[in-house]
Amino acid sequence: MANRHLSRTVAMQTLYEWDFSHPLSAGAGNNNEAEILALADRNLKEFAPEFDDQGFVHSLILGVLQNQAAIDKYIERYAPEWPIDQITIVDRNILRLGVFELIFGKEVPAKVAINEAIELAKTFGGESSGRFVNGVLGAIYKEIPTTEAGEEVIQNLTDDAPPVLQKKAKKGKLKKPR
């Protein structure tokens, strides 16, 4: 298993375990970074004892936690039939990782982030998890505004657009899908 894929697997397992015992909810004060990183280190020791790059695992987990409110808004917007608390814990945390890498991450191209999330869903989720994750992340990817689209995209952003897009639009830093 490649190191980055293993990192995502451990990050997803850690987020799943934390979400199961401390439901992740933005602003609830239960997202103790030190505790969740200790849990990640324990999972690394158990599932990847030879793995020596915990930094990527930690950056994924912290990235999801620190951007969770915006990430969950993306999921709610692009999976409107599924309230966030009704999505299975596995699928919810795979989506959170995928959205984090797709929107906030700078490490990998968007298509790699989507593919990695789909692979996690096929491995750890239910029978239709891969299709569900692909549908949600694919819809988000298609709607990421590009700088080539010019001012029209920026002007068409509505108030219900995710905050990260509003912020980037105001700064003129909308990124082109990779």
TrEMBL record:
Pfam families: NusB. This is Transcription antitermination protein NusB. NCBIfam families: nusB. Residues 7-142 form the NusB/RsmB/TIM44 domain. Belongs to the NusB family. The keyword Disulfide bond does not apply. The lineage of its organism: Bacteria, Candidatus Uhriibacteriota. Keywords: RNA-binding, Transcription, Transcription antitermination, Transcription regulation.
